[in-house]
Hints:
Number of strands: 11
Largest sheet: 7 strands, antiparallel
Order of helices and strands: HEEEEEEEEEHEE
CATH architecture of the domain at 34-113: Sandwich
Number of helices: 2
Distance between the termini: 58 Å
Shape: globular
CATH class of the domain at 34-113: Mainly Beta
CATH topology of the domain at 34-113: Immunoglobulin-like
Helix content: 10-25%
Structural class: alpha+beta
Strand content: 35-45%
Radius of gyration: 21 Å
Amino acid sequence: xxxxxxxxxxxTVFVSAFGVQVGTARADGGSLIIYSDGLFVWGKGxxxxxDATGYRNKDLKDASIYxxxxxxDLFCWVLKEEGKIVCNAQGGLTQFAGQTGIIYLGGQIFYxxxxxxxxxxxxxxxxxxxxxxxxxxxxxxxxxxxxxxPYFVPGDTLEEADLQAESWYxxxxxxxxxxxxxxxxxx
Length: 187
C-alpha cells in the first residue's frame, strides 16, 4: 500500500511539474514586453523601462519584483506616445544593488540587475554615511569567467574609488557600476 501511495505521489508531482503549459501574455495588439533599462533616478528611486505597445495601465497593476527573498510592489504606467512602460520600485531597493531581481509584469518574467544609487544630478550632493559606513563605489570584475560582482571599493570621490579599484583589480578588466554610495568597508 505504501509503495502504491508513493508511486501515485511521484506521478502527481511529475504531471504537475511537466504538464503545465506556460505562455506569454500579450496585449490586444499582440505586442511582447521587452526589457530596456534599469536606473536610479533622484527623487523617484529605481526605475525600470520596457518597450511595449498596446498595453493599458490596468494591465500592469499587479507588477512586482522579487529580490532579497521578498516581493516588492512596482508602480507601472504606460507612455503610449513613446511605446514604453515605466515601473518605479520604491522601498529602498538600492540595498540590493548589483543583485539579480525578477520582475513580474503583464504576465511575463524579466531578470534584471538592481541598479545602485547614483550621484546627485548636479554632482554637488555627497551621500552622508551612517556610522560604520564609508563612501565608495560598486564595481564588477572579470576574473576570466565573465564579469562578477558587485564589489565595493572605498573612496571619498569617484576618482579615488577608481584609483583604488585600479590598484586592486588592475590585472583584470573591471567597470564601475554605481555612483558614490555608502557601504561597509571591505574587510
